[in-house]
Write a structure and sequence with these properties.
This protein is an alpha/beta fold and 371 residues long. It has helices at 29-35, 50-66, 85-97, 112-124, 138-144, 182-199, 201-209, 221-241, 256-265, 273-290, 296-308, 320-328, 357-366, and strands at residues 6-10, 17-22, 43-48, 70-75, 105-110, 130-135, 149-154, 157-164, 169-173, 333-334, 337-338, 340-345, 348-352. Strand 10 (333-334) and strand 11 form a beta hairpin. Helix 6 (182-199) crosses helix 7 and helix 6 (182-199) runs parallel beside helix 10 (273-290). It is globular and about 60 Å long. The chain binds nicotinamide-adenine-dinucleotide and glycine. Nicotinamide-adenine-dinucleotide (NAD) binds next to helix 2, helix 4, helix 5 and helix 6.
Length: 371
């Protein structure tokens, strides 16, 4: 359906790896492990959750066994509220029971929550073992599975506990999107639109011209593969330049500073990650317009595209002091200043710590989405 498999290389000083994007490739996992030269007989711990394990894990595990490895499947409950240290303890317990060694592998078979947790467990088990990402949501295909950020949430904030730990391989099977609920598909589309705003105006225009962005059933099938490849290529380029987020990589957090506030203040229950990012993009977009960073036309183009993808853009009715406290607790605070990624035009953003608190308060007082 999506023709041949494409390969995107993430070139890093250490630990370079391939991202493979194809159709019906999920059950080639055994062969892919062989290609990584993992010794035969090696232990493999596969982490998944019920919605994914039910349709995909049986043949996946068989493929690993068929290549001469010893797999064990651990199924964790789904949901952002499960992205906790408690779940990491469950993975570490399974790693102990299955006697994972330094040469063993952990595989994430699922969305970004599973990927972030499996990666963090791999980063910390025996001070770091190998792991493979097999992302099954649009969001994890275009963003979470690539770049090596792993971790869990703390009760006071999102992703506050974590490590950089690059996967050995990312294996993307676009056919797994067939079982993904439409709302989750749209949540992934928020991160795709993010790439358009931060650095790819061609991608942005392509999305504007597309007849539909709200569901895999209605989107052009050629476009979906193109979207995934373009997004990963952008992310790979940024990560290659700044693996540990000392500078430019922060632009990938566009919309996330306010997005994390939305997720944290609603206990990760009301909005999906991509929906919160969409609200966050509209919020910083509005502030950027108020401060003359970008034009009303660009703000409207962004918000219209988010709406076209069926995403929310209205700022919720939070108490201002809670918002300010949550913003200041975010990882992106440096020397007490909040660092924002601010749009200049479609395809271009800047990083700034100079946004006055008054501008944020003024936005929170009026909090209108301009379109
Ligand atoms: P998710 O992992 O919670 O998955 C969403 C839901 O879809 C879950 O219920 C899951 O069981 C289900 N699901 C997954 N694949 C499916 C499939 N093919 N068919 C049917 N159901 C399926 O959510 P997500 O949107 O994939 O990821 C969000 C997480 O990713 C957040 O925690 C976010 O912080 C993280 N993230 C990390 C990075 C990074 O660089 N590490 C980047 C972006 C987002
Ligand atoms: N999603 C942000 C990053 O990977 O840096």
């Amino acid at each position: 359906m999506y023709q041949e498999t494409s390969s995107i290389k993430v070139n890093l000083v250490n630990n370079s790896y391939e991202v493979l994007v194809g159709s019906k490739v999920i059950n080639s996992i055994g062969k892919k492990i062989e290609k990584l030269k993992i010794p035969k007989g090696g232990k493999v711990l596969v982490i998944s959750n019920p919605d994914v394990a039910e349709p995909y894990s049986k043949s996946f595990i068989e493929s690993i066994k068929g290549s001469g490895y010893d797999p064990k499947l651990l199924i964790l409950e789904a949901g952002e509220d499960q992205k906790t240290q408690k779940s990491i303890a469950l993975i570490h317990n399974a790693a102990y029971e299955h006697q994972l060694e330094r040469s063993s592998l952990i595989i994430a078979l699922g969305g970004g929550v599973i990927g972030d947790m499996a990666g963090f467990a791999a980063a910390t088990w025996l001070r770091g073992i190998g792991f493979i990402q097999v992302p099954t949501t649009l969001l994890s295909m275009v963003d979470a599975s690539v770049g090596g950020k792993t971790g869990v949430n703390h009760s006071r904030g999102k992703n506050l506990i974590g490590a950089f730990h690059q996967p050995k391989l990312v294996l993307i099977d676009l056919d797994t999107l067939k079982t993904l609920p439409d709302r989750e598909f749209r949540s992934g589309m928020a991160e795709v639109i993010k790439y358009g705003v931060i650095s790819d105006s061609d991608l942005f225009t392509k999305l504007e011209k597309a007849s539909d962005l709200t569901s895999l059933k209605t989107i052009d099938k050629k476009l979906i593969k193109e979207i995934v490849i373009k997004s990963i290529t952008t992310k790979a380029k940024i990560v290659e330049e700044d693996e540990k987020e000392n500078g430019i990589r922060a632009i990938l957090n566009y919309g996330h500073t306010f997005g994390h506030v939305v997720e944290t203040l609603t206990g990760y229950k009301k909005w999906l990650h991509g929906e919160a990012v969409s609200i966050g993009m509209a919020a910083i977009g509005e502030i950027a317009f108020n401060l003359n960073f970008w034009s009303l036309e660009d703000l409207k183009r962004q918000n219209n595209l988010l709406k076209k993808a069926g995403l929310p853009i209205e700022w919720p009715d939070f108490q201002k002091n809670q918002v300010m406290r949550s913003l200041k607790g975010d990882k992106k605070v440096k020397d007490g200043n909040i660092r924002f990624v601010i749009p200049n035009e479609i395809g271009k953003v800047v990083i700034s710590s100079d946004i006055e608190e008054d501008s944020i308060i003024s936005f929170l007082n009026h909090k209108k989405a301009t379109v």
